Amino acid sequence: MAFRVSRKYFESLIEDVLLRLPSKFLVELNNITIIVEDYPSEEVIRELGINKRDLLGLFVGIPYKEKNSFFSPFSFPDVIYIFQKNIEEISKNEEDLIAQIRETLLHELGHFFGLTEEDLKD
User: Fold this and answer.
1) In the chain, which ranges are continuous DSSP H helix?
2) Dihedrals φ, ψ of 67, to 5°?
3) How far apart are CA 38 and CA 83, in angstroms?
4) Of 41, 47, 62, 80, which is the most buried if we count CB atoms within 10 A?
5) E strand or H helix at 107, and its extent?
6) pLDDT at 74
7) What is the DSSP letter of 110?
8) Domains (ranges, CATH) in the chain?
């Protein structure tokens, strides 16, 4: 069932999703890093209390609307982790893979912009 691709191609699909964002959102994505990893770390899994294969992405940082503009230039970058092997595992083909990358990245960007899980469900 899993549809596997190279890391380089996977990252290019993420870039494609980002480049399709409306410019009003894209310009706000400064001081944020997107990191692709195979799986979440054991520390993250323990902290969240979930199965290693259930997590597709994770936002780590301060939501945009909570940032203090005075300290923003001096703060560490926010990070969005995208877990390639978990996304590939639930993808049957390239179309599924692209759709899941898009959904996961938009979900994590929603957290960056301050949306809660409940907001994202709506």
Assistant:
1) 7-19, 23-26, 42-48, 84-89, 94-112, 117-121
2) -70, 140
3) 5
4) 80
5) helix 94-112
6) 57
7) H
8) 7-114 (3.30.2010.20)
